Amino acid sequence: MLDLERQNQPLRQELLDALAGVLDSRQFILGAAVGAFEAAAAETLGVTHAVGCSSGTDALWLALAAAGIGPGAAVVTTPFSFFASVSAILRAGATPVLADIDPTTFNLDPRMVEETLHGPGGDEVRAILPVHLYGQPADWNLFTALGRVHRLAVIEDAAQAWGAEWQGKKAGGLGDAAAFSFYPTKNLSAAGDAGMVTTNSDEIAERMRMLRQHGMRRRYYHDEVGWSTRMDGFQGAVLRVKLKYIAEWNRKRRTVAERYDALFRKAGLADAGPYSARGVVLPHEVEGSTHVWHQYVIRSAQRDALREFLTSRSIGSEIYYPVPLHLQTALQGLAYKQGDFPEAERAAREVLALPIFPELREDEQETVVAAIEEFLS
Ligand SMILES: Cc1ncc(COP(=O)(O)O)c(C=O)c1O
Fold it and tell me: Which atom of ligand 1 is nearest to the CA of 182?
């Protein structure tokens, strides 16, 4: 699925020098290396504030808490995401409210969100948390309009979308606040856990910085109950190095995605969608959005058998995500049931992520598509 060695090897000396710089500085938590990464990240994303923290999960909590979301508030999000999109809302003391996804993009469907706002409990909603799933921005025009009309905060789960754009504007600067993950498999990755929150609001940024250090504005004077969720110096140093290359890596991911598209079409395997018939449905890039291809996800009615076949040929694949969040054991307290979000449930049965990373070779992609062709024939 991912060969990080191909990314690390050419950068080995540069990364080691950056790590040695942190060791010598002895600034192991936040410090100059994290500050330098925060400044460069803010510039790259075109936002006024970028605040480093310890993971994407903590970034989501920080974004929500800093935007004033807490007990008594409800937040609408998607049932088809990584668990943290919902658990961070609970961790902030708020109530998650789910709405179904668009079957073409797998992203939260703004029309379903609007229905939810007019339904029971809609009055308690204070924020919307769309996820830019697989690296493609959610439909930001419609979410911005919903936020404005209903006076809601709109917060981006941009964990999978470093460098993605919506109509020329980078993810991270689209909503009131955004959360990124630098988990080692992400398109911009640390050498361990790390995350970041971004915003264009001075007030929200000040609260993010306060909340990531136990609610302190002044050392050992605690204004609020925050948490310990700071970025390590070593992670800041690694990320500062990798930030120089991410635009090029994202371009290479696009080339890989385009090659998959071409190979599937040439083999006559591309169904029209949104659901598969005899072939597979290829991922759809929405006009006006720039996908960063964190994942290349196809849809197949025979997903489980296809995956087994690929595994038997030593071809990696992954299911993001096999169980929609409303059916997770840990979230039974939300009182949803099977059938509540049919698109998310169907996607969970049919999606399959294929290997994608900047250094993936054409011959390797040919092997993947040839195996899928063999299975389907
Ligand atoms: C959509 C989404 N949100 C949140 C997270 C949480 O990030 P982390 O693993 O860095 O805590 C992830 C990463 O797995 C993710 O994919």
Answer: 10
The DSSP bridge partners found for residue 230 are 53
Alpha-carbon Rg of the chain, whole angstroms? 21
The per-residue pLDDT for range 207-225, each reduced to its tens digit, is 999 999 999 999 999 999 9
Ligand 1 touching residue 159 (CB < 6 A): yes
Q: Which of 144, 82, 142, 85 has the alpha carbon at shortest distance from 109? A: 142
Answer whether 130 contacts ligand 1 (Cβ < 6 A): no
Angle at 358 (CA atoms; ends 356, 363), nearest 5 degrees:
70
Alpha carbon distance 189, 66 (integer Å): 24
pTM exceeds cut of 0.90: yes
Task: Give the Cα separation of 126 and 145 in Å (integer).
Answer: 14
Q: Considering only CA atoms, which residue is closest to atom 10 of ligand 1?
A: 56
Per-residue model confidence (pLDDT) at position 94: 98
Residue 267 CB neighbour total at 10 angstroms: 15
Q: Which residues contact 264 (CB under 8 A, 6 or more apart)?
A: 270, 279, 280, 282, 298, 369, 372
What does the pLDDT read at residue 254?
98
d(CA 295, CA 309): 20
Contact status, residue 175 vs residue 154, Cβ threshold 8 Å:
yes
Outline where DSSP puts E strands in the chain.
49-53, 74-77, 95-98, 125-129, 153-157, 165-166, 169-170, 177-181, 195-199, 216-218, 221-222, 270-271, 280-281, 289-290, 296-299, 351-354
Please tell me if the CB atom of residue 160 comes closer than 6 angstroms to any atom of ligand 1.
yes
Split at pLDDT 50, 70, 90, the class of 99 is very high
